[in-house]
Specification:
Helices cover about 30% and strands about 25% of the residues. It has about 280 residues and is of the alpha/beta class. It is elongated. It starts with a helix and ends in a 14-residue tail after the last strand.
Length: about 280
Amino acid sequence: MRKTLMKWLLLVFLFAYVTAVTVWAHGEASRHACKGFEVEIKSVSKADSVTERGVTEELMKYPRKIKGVPMAAVNTLDLERYLSKMSNFEDVECTLTTDGFLRVTIVPMVPEIRVFDGPDSYYINKDGKRIESKASFFVDVPVVKGTFTTSFTPRDVLPVTRFVQNDPVLRQLVSMTEARDADNIILVPRIHGHVVNFGDTTRLEEKRKALLAFYRKVMPYKGWWEYDTLSLKFRGQIVASRRDKTPSVHGLQYEEEEDLEEATLPVDLPEKTAPGNGNP
């Protein structure tokens, strides 16, 4: 009986203590004004500082005053709903600290590419989730242009953009990607004059080696403006299309010469043709 009585007394004491602390905290919150807000970003990425600045700007646009009002008047649930309407965040938590601040904890969506889809512009993360493109949340990520459908989405291009970003040579070479369809993913080099058709998302390393071999063995002799398209779609070969497609003239008739560069060029081109080997 004594042990039971002690348990009940302990429970009553704990209940009274919690009640007293709650009443005291509520009274303190009513008397003290909110000093401002703190933004905490729960991630490690290059976009953290951008996200923090963007959240601060959004809080400044919040229709109700935050700084200077009694702590009890700060509606944390309403603030969470307000910020959660934006697609830039995976999770939002608002709490009031004991030292008089509103703490906003954000788990951001991390954009992987910027998509220009017709008149629309937005980001997507690693899972293909769409993120609104707002000036206050601008991030410098690879750019992909295309017209996408339910069967061909921006997420389908991620293997190519990731491959380019992870390769130091291609990352410096490529300025943007144009996705015409699943079999025609085009890399647009910073060096103007031609584009590179990478085909689909398979055999990426093989295509890289073929492209760099072409740049090393052909471009120094032909020049960067000789071709308008280099296609790596086909296994073990490159198809280069001349920029000048004007038909040649023979006598009184116009005949189109065979464009040898539009025919198949082997990837492993010879370094130099030896003289006197019988070739014309």
